[in-house]
Amino acid sequence: VFDCRQVLVELSNYLDDEVAGRLRAELEEHLAECHTCRVLVDSTRKTVQIVTECRSFELPGNLSARVMQRIRALDRESKP
Ligand SMILES: [Zn+2]
Question: Among 12, 17, 30, 51, which has the minimal tally of Cβ within 10 Å of its Cβ?
Answer without folding.
Answer: 17
